Amino acid sequence: MTVSDHAFWVALAEIIWINVLLSGDNALVIALACRALPERQRRWGIVLGTVPAVVLRIVFTLFVVYLLDIPYLKLVGGLLLLWIAIKLILPEEGDHKGVASRANLWGAVRTIVIADAVMSLDNVIAIAAAAKDSITLLVTGLCISMPLVIFGSALILEILNRVPVLIWAGGALLGYIAGEVMVSDPAIADWIEPVPQLAIVAPIAGAVLTVAAAWAIGRINAIRERKRLDLIS
Fold it and tell me: pLDDT tens digits, residue range 46-105?
């Protein structure tokens, strides 16, 4: 896949979109970690914390790209990606009280880097799958999207809150990619080759399954919450 290919630009757009959708927590961590810094140090805290975090994410994703060539790992990764897609659509539970603000610059930087490394598993798996073994795509997509996430996080979160259908569309995209990943696993290549239609059906099924499962789980959670409130009242 080269820069002149249409598929390259489609995949690049997928990587940017996925990273923006999945990095809301990371942007919030940055804000929480830097909130106690003096005004003049906050920008430096964001920049110095973000640069090593981006480098670490690229390194992690490179490892995942190569690991996905091992038989059966794409099947496992695809199933995990389906779960990540469903979790993306469902409302977040809990908060970030465990993220401590730091009154000194390097303490804030350390907090940002550690938190990003711990929280980036979903991003790494999704981006590695969307990159389709292209290191150029992977690095370019991350380098474009991470600054967007960090410096435009407030705007991005506002847009997602105002247009929630984008979250559902993002979840469906991840489900679609999960289907692509699973049918491309070398362990089942002999089964897929005689039925090439599966390469088209599986990604669509992944997108539909993601949206349907998220809707069903959301409904079940809403019913449970209503029952809990009825018991309290």
Answer: 777 777 777 777 787 777 777 767 888 778 878 887 887 888 788 655 445 455 555 577
The number of residues in the chain equals 233
- How far is residue 192's CA from residue 59's CA, in Å, rounded to a whole number? 31
Residue 188's closest CA among 81, 68, 72, 77?
72
Tell if the pTM clears 0.70, that is, is over it.
Answer: no
Distances (CA, A) of 169 to 21, 69, 85, 160, 184: 10, 28, 10, 11, 23
User: Which two tokens mark 150?
Assistant: 């960090």
Residue ranges of domains in the chain: 6-232
Q: Which two tokens stand for residue 166?
A: 């984008």
Which residues have CB under 8 Å from 182's CB, separation 6+? 74, 75, 78, 79, 202, 206
Residue 220, Cα to own-chain centre: how many angstroms? Answer: 24
Task: Give whole-number Cα distances, 29 to 15, 16, 44, 45, 126, in Å.
Answer: 21, 20, 15, 12, 20
DSSP character at residue 79: H
Output the six-digit token pair for 207: 């997108």
